[in-house]
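Q: Joint fold for the lines below.
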Amino acid sequence: MLIRVEPGADEPLYEQVASSVRAQLAAGVLQVGDKLPPARDVADGLGINLHTVLRAYQLLRDEHLIDLRRGRNAVVTEAAGTLGTLNADIVQLVDRARTAGITADALVSLVKETYR
Amino acid sequence: MTEPRTPAARRTTQGSTASERPPAPTKHRVPIRRFIVLAMLVPVVFTIAAVALQLWWLPELPDPVAIHWTPDGPDGFAPAWTLPVLTAVIGLGIPLLMTSSALPGLRNGAWGPSPRLLGAVSPAMSALLAIVTTWSAGVQRGIADAADAPGVEPGLATGLAAAVIVGLVSWFILPGETFPEPGDEAESPEPIALAAGERVVWVRTTAAGAPARIAVLGAVALLVGLAVGLGITTTAPIWPLVILAVLLALLGAATLVFRVRVDERGLAVRSVLGVPTLRVALHDVVSAERVTVHPMAEFGGIGLRSGLDGRFGVVLRAGEALQVTRRDRGPFVVTVDDAAIAAATLMALRRREQSEP
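A: Joint structure:
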């Protein structure tokens, strides 16, 4: 599993780690029942704090995308599986927004607005 | 192309051009029939012949017979029927055990020096065994007391000579090629796009196939069960069994499951035990690609393996693998899924390191 972060970016690091995981869930690289790599490995590889990665994993758990159990690996949940089915729609939506000249931020706020 | 279509005409054509190489589609065909004949059928035939002769002689043999010799004479005895039974069990069991492990790889279309060696050693060993056992029966014919049996050194020498001849003939009957050639199915992916300050890590767990894991777990369970059973029923010390079980479990953890990581330092392949850890530093990376590995043909089995072609690596199963060409040593291989992404990540990091001195 590929995780990438840009320390200089505005978005907090833990958000970036979570985004990487979400992207791979959506792309189908990670499937239901797959284990996420140990947080220590990810932190070590990225040269960031272990707690940053753990916070990202907790965020994903709060979104019901992974199960976290003490002493065990983080496991991708059934709920995360449905994220994969949205992938095609998301790609299409972003394509159309881009052609229409709508920025990523504008699209995100539109999506958030629709959730209310 | 004006190749004749009818089978008869085709045969004629092939006959007249016998010195030419066979056509391309048959170039990479595993000699599976020849392998089975040499490594399995020949040993079976040798063994059946030996057992038949020993049974034929059985009425003439002393009972018990001598089954073991020192330079001064026989020192091991057993009931006469042991000789044909032992010959059958060992003579059939060893070649079948030895060769059956190689068959899955051959069916997948892989061939190399390891199955070739197996195909030569199996009939050679069987020839040695058949001759020595039958010889030791032959010299005891008509003797009343097995203690008077003459030595079997000539039989041993004959058996060894026969083994060498059978082994050499089999070795040369089997082809000396290796295929698929390493790199036949290689894929060098485009490096992923990396921003200047971006950090990236790729992590993936890779494990040996179910049979290897089941074998180790089964052996550990057996030892533990044995230790418990002995502990309950006897006063025999069980700690040797417990130590053996623990050692086996540790060995399994050290060799069957590995975590593969690509990051700014390069490639690290670490067992779940933590030891061993194998690394390729980023500045030693020349190139990275996704390859397909056939463990039996290319590495002679699974585990931490050196190939005869100079490759080294962690080979846990057949199929997809990450192969890294190193600067001053042979290529490093690790069998792992999504190897193309790993290779693309590793190459992106390497390129960035080269461009930023």
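Q: Anything notable?
A: Chain B has ten helices and eleven strands. Chain B has a mean pLDDT of 83.
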